[in-house]
Amino acid sequence: MADEPFDATGDDDLGEPPWTVAVCPVTPELAAQLADMVQVDWTDPDAGERAMAAAGWESTGEYLGDLDQKAHTPAGHLVYGDDCLAMPFAYEYYVHPDGAVAEDFWSVLPGWHGIVDPPAGSFGGQVDAVVETFTALLGPPDHDVTHARRPELDHEWRYRAWRRGDNVLVVAPGLDGFSYSQFEHAFVQIRSLPATTQFPAPEELPDFFW
Known about the structure:
By secondary structure, this protein is an alpha+beta fold. The chain contains 4 helices and 10 strands, in the order E-H-H-E-E-E-E-E-H-E-E-E-E-H.
């Protein structure tokens, strides 16, 4: 996914309602399941299905769910990815009937809650909290790389990643496709990255990890 936002509204005069940060928490128990899944070959759909079933996650079966998910955790996280595991845990957006997000469907999903007009830094704080949870399980990240997405606005995306065998687990923000890339989400992703392969350069990270 490209790392430049698309203005789906086409109108600069909408004004901004209060922002919302919607969250489905990553508990230590869920983080431990994900840490165990770093060794799974996610390029093998059957292996991925077995790993999710063993963890008690519910698969959507042959067809994707209403929000294009392939599974969901008991806590309510939606799980995506054809050859990887991608699990968003936070979204940052505002709701406007003529905007990119016309209704707040994230906050009302089972297991999710919305923080309306949150304190500054709330979205980034959610990302940092998940990183701390994985650090307690796996130790410090093997890679801690910042991508200056929009330097003129001092806006950066920070990628914290753990390498295990030929896979990598990353916690990072990215553009939310449901808002036509107008807003951001934060996610955990596990995907293939051979042990002999260098970690992607900062400018390659947005496309590599989502």
